[in-house]
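[stage:ingest] chain + small molecule (BIS(adenosine)-5'-pentaphosphate)
[stage:ingest] validated
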Amino acid sequence: MRIVLLGAPGAGKGTQCKRIVARYGLLHLSSGDILRQERAAGAELGKKAQSYMDAGTLVPDQIIVEMMVCVIKKSPETGFVLDGFPRTVNQARQLDQSLACSRQKIDIILNLKVDNQVVIERLTGRRSCPKCGAVYHIKNLKPKVEGICDKDGTTLVQRADDNIEVVENRLKVYRQQTKPVVDYYKNSYVVCDIDANRNADDVTALVFECLDSLVEV
Ligand code: AP5
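[stage:predict] done
[stage:export] tokens:
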């Protein structure tokens, strides 16, 4: 199964992707996570992406498409779920072309729909573990001990782009450049709109309902 998960920053893409891969045995390919890993490793790609990410603007298409096509080519037969990619119509077209070369196609697009105020609350309250990547929230998903990862005891951190000014810019960029991707897919793909304002378990139930219709679990 090949899935694209679309949604504004903070819609819950990463949270839902972790649950999707656990249930359907897919590979989670998050463009944001890959860029952050490249940055942490001091790699050239990470250095190129840094200023765009810190400002909440998009990294140029050429860099992103090359990076994502490369990881998609290495993905297993069982399939993948794309998180944060494609984010422009140009990226979506290039993804289609690349998959067509290997006679593949996206099976379903899940579109997480969320209100701006919910996004701001979720992102400014998000904390994550720099070691294992576990994601928490200061109100909705608290760790057992404040500020400490339940899984490995590491001190939790706040992402540099999760402050209010950058979040507002990310929402603006989403409206201008990523929302048109939903319309692009609605022309020729199955797109499932999901109410992502609801709590994480309710959203997961809606997501699984869409995906179970494609596959026998
Ligand atoms: P990226 O890392 O992709 O960030 P994003 O799209 O802004 O999404 P987030 O990771 O912030 O949110 P999410 O939807 O995954 O929410 P999460 O599940 O964590 O991109 C970062 C940057 O990289 C971009 O700005 C850009 O510069 C660059 N980039 C990446 N891809 C690119 C591309 N294709 N092209 C160009 N540039 C690219 O949840 C958020 C919080 O809410 C958590 O605390 C969570 O616990 C909580 N939560 C989740 N769901 C719920 C719920 N249902 N109810 C209550 N709380 C919830």
